[in-house]
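Risk register update: the risk of archive-format incompatibility is retired. Evidence:
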Amino acid sequence: MARLIPSVLSLVFALASLTLWAADPSTQAPETSPQPTPADSQASAPIQPKRTSNYLPANEIKQITIDNQPLELLVRSWEGRKKLGAAIILPATNGTADAPGLMAFVRRNINAAGWASLSLTPPTEPPAPNFATPATEVTTAGSAQLTSPSNKPSQKVKPEDSNKHLIEQEDFLVKSMSQLDSVGADFPGKRVLITADQSAGLLISLLSQKKIADPDVLIVINPYSEDETRNQAIAEKLAKLTMPILDIQSPDGHPASLETAAQRKTLAVTLETPNYRQTTLVLNLDNESAWQNCLTAIRGFAARMSGAH
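Archived output:
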């Protein structure tokens, strides 16, 4: 019993000391202010325009604003003694102002021929629809028949939705082109408009409707529209334009462009379109020598037909 009493007293003193230490404010963890949530951070931070060409020199990158959205306009000045004017470059839809391939090659290399290059951000395409079929329905017979011809690709969107988006794309391009005057004022002279694929189809439509100013020279590469009616109308619209036109068709171009190539040439000859020329060039994405051939054709045609020497 005598041995037990000291042990009990030691335990009591230890518990009392522990209680006093916990109550001491100096031993408690300091209060911290609540950390801002991601939503709070996004609300307080200003929205910065998205820059997709960080690898380019800062002096090449200008900005225009379409419907409150900042977009890149890439500008390269002319090189050497010649100062003929500006080449306005519109890459294929769904790309960027410096989309890799032929158009970026032309943008960087036409300057030595005396042309400044103004490369626009092209309009976007609607997202492709995603049709999912439940596993239990895979073997179930359908209740409707296919209405699309067997030799034509299925439509991605409804005709009314497709037409609405095409109008939006045209409106986007009209607003973009209207903002080039201030930037292009630094490069007086002739204007050459160079465009490809669906962007070419859109610009041909706008030029035929007189919604944008005629360039001194028009260069179209594999022009087409995924809308069947509009695609068939490209040949007639192109043939009725009055400016000099270089129509470059690649054997590996989009099937819709290949479909109208012969008609584009035939109508231009029939309607005696002045200064229309169609040429065939292989433009494989991995064939830079073909890009050089294309650039040579563009440079020669632009200088000769614009009267700029």
